[in-house]
Amino acid sequence: MPQNQNLFVALRDAFPHELDSTAIATADGDALAYSWRDLERATAMLANLLASLELPAGARVAVQTEKSVEALMLYLAVLRAGYVYLPLNTAYQSREIEYFIANAEPSVVVCSGKNFSWVSRLAFSAGTRHVFTLNDDRSGSLLERAAHHSDSHAPAQKTADDLAAILYTSGTTGRSKGAMLSHGNLLSNALTLKRTWGWAKGDVLIHALPIFHVHGLFVASHGALLNGSRMIWFGKFDPLAVVARLPEATVFMGVPTLYVRLLAEPSFTRDACRGMRLFISGSAPLLIETFNEFRERSGHTILERYGMSETLMLTSNPYDAKDGERRGGTVGLPLPGVDLRVSDDQGQPCAAGEIGGIEVRGPNVFHGYWRMPEKTKEEFTADGWFKTGDVGTVDERGYVSIVGRSKDLIITGGYNVYPAEVESTLNEMPGVAESAVIGVPHPDFGEGVVAVVVAKPGAQPDATGLITALKARIANFKVPKHLFVVDELPRNTMGKVQKNLLREQHKSLFAA
Ligand code: AMP
């Protein structure tokens, strides 16, 4: 028989020999310690439960539950049993869940007990046969049923190209699409990150991210599991509680908002970070101010990386100083095995420093959008590169910078305006904490530039004054025609600014 390429097998092979040592310690709620043996046995029982349902090959298991260690075990059990895992953001409401269930046609749905009545109604009427509940206090029908199954299970035989998960894109623009990721995609990326980020014996990860997204589910969990490393597990990010556990940990991964919240916590000091090896940020742009302030406060330089559901991780700032410095405002260099290029509108290569669309190729790139062959075709170039939809540059030294999403690009009077440029200029101005720049329909210019600004605590920046100051710094066509000062920007759960909501809100601003 060929070697089993099931990702679960690779993760389990990395479990330490001391199976009774702690794999995961929960840090909020009841303080529980799960051993490696617990992971092995519980995933076997859950996999046996799934196998007993006699699901068709390639069956999808859709999961919308609160974060818990058992939910992570369910993910591992779905891999182990050879089915396809489909995590769903806990924030999704019934209309959204209805869409995902209709689109993915899962054979099994697992939801929180509190949502069972409406989720099961939607699922059963769409033809799903099995709906289980799983709560974050270890209750629910899933575990009750699994308890009756054997704790030994031979992992399903898989090839590298077999589907392991479908991740619906977070949908800050347009309708969500299901990115199909294979066992080979996930394992190759996890192995690359293990080497690149210097995972070593003795590492301990603080896991404080949601597990319905590529960052928390794959980058963080695979990182620790593939290294046989203990995780300190937070159901929810709480800065004070996280700081209290830092001395026991070596690695932390967060989205930029988590770093901002750590910096707002007075107990976050150099001393609290004394045992830390690495802080990693991604999923949204890290402001240079946060990068600098973090270095001053903690003595650590955040390592920023870039990736997406469709491709997993693509670039990383250097881990080792001999490979280069970690440069704030950039997402670093392409990872080993990842090819990355920047192309102009005609598909021609851009020179160093020139802005264009980022395209990638590698073993990490997904197998297409679930049941959307046309959409998949559109997103690949004729020579097989995936068009990320991100706009950016590569400098002479190979460092990649993201300027924005191509869909966020503003074209006003025929001129291209990159929101990130206007935003970073605004963010440097006194009294401005952060900003979002969007384009909305304009009768003369096609699109008109609009800025939405959040003030620093205690500051009251004046819209007219900011516009005047901008005029002195950037070309007039880039200067917002309107500027609003607001309390906060709309963000999704991964900390990404939802520009689609801002565009909707201001769409009639320039209506005749
Ligand atoms: P998702 O598929 O939800 O992970 O979203 C992926 C998108 O997040 C990318 O296409 C980028 O637009 C954005 N993103 C991820 N990491 C970064 C980063 N370090 N800096 C800027 N944007 C990022």
Q: How is the secondary structure organized here?
A:
Blueprint: H1 7-13, E1 22-26, E2 33-35, H2 36-52, E3 60-64, H3 69-81, E4 84-87, H4 94-104, E5 108-111, H5 116-125, E6 130-133, H6 141-146, E7 163-168, E8 178-182, H7 183-196, E9 204-207, H8 214-226, E10 230-233, H9 239-245, E11 251-254, H10 256-263, E12 278-281, H11 288-298, E13 303-308, E14 312-316, E15 333-334, E16 339-343, E17 356-361, H12 373-378, E18 386-394, E19 400-405, E20 410-412, E21 415-417, H13 419-427, E22 432-442, E23 446-455, H14 463-471, E24 482-486, H15 499-505
Helix pairs in contact: 2-3, 4-5, 7-8, 10-11
Bound molecules: adenosine monophosphate.
Adenosine monophosphate binds at residues 169-170, 214, 282-285, 304, 306-309, 331, 388, 390, 402, 405, 494.
Q: CATH-wise, what's the superfamily of the domain at 409-505?
A: ANL, C-terminal domain
Shape: globular
The strand order across the widest sheet is 2-1-10-9-11-12-13-14-15
Mean pLDDT equals 95
How far apart the termini lie comes to 70 Å
Strand tally is 24
Amount of beta strand:
15-25%
CATH topology-level name of the domain at 409-505: GMP Synthetase, Chain A, domain 3
Class by helix and strand content? alpha/beta
What is the radius of gyration computed over CA atoms, rounded to a whole number of angstroms? 23 Å
Are any ligands bound, and if so which? Answer: adenosine monophosphate
CATH architecture of the domain at 409-505: 2-Layer Sandwich
Q: What's the CATH first level of the domain at 409-505?
A: Alpha Beta
Q: What percent of residues adopt helix (DSSP H or I)?
A: 25-40%
